[in-house]
Amino acid sequence: MVSIRAKIKSRLEKFLEVDSNGYRRAILCIFIKVKKATIDELHEMLSSKYNVSRNTVASMVGYIHSKLGILRAHKESYKTPMIYLLREEYIDLLMKIVASPTKTITDSTA
Question: 16: how many CB neighbours lie within 10 A of its CB?
């Protein structure tokens, strides 16, 4: 039986394999540094380096939250924005994967 941690690692690797612009890796790096952020905060941090829309950032964070399972979502009240928090138990795994060099097409076929 495959552990949840192994499944998440596999999903993270696949998520980063198709990262052609570097947005995905950048969002994960931001979460490693700040631990929690809103969509607007993430968009502000990313837009200083990339030409990325708020909807693109929201879509990626939603995918990371729902499919990868490494984020928690918290909302103080219905008037406040959603705050996404990096789950403590996945910080070390995320750091290993994000810090590793990106795979190229020749690496995956060899």
Answer: 17
Domain holding 47, by residue range, is 4-99
The enclosing domain of 23 has a CATH number of 1.10.10.10
In a domain, 107, yes or no: no
Question: What's the domain count of the chain?
Answer: 1
For residues 61 and 71, the answer to whether their CB atoms sit within 8 Å is yes
* E strands in 1-110: 36-37, 71-74, 83-86
Question: 106 lies in a domain?
Answer: no
Token pair, residue 98, equals 């994000």
pLDDT tens digits for the chain (110 residues)? 678 889 999 999 999 999 889 999 999 999 999 999 999 999 999 999 999 999 999 999 999 999 999 999 999 999 999 999 999 999 999 999 888 765 544 344 43
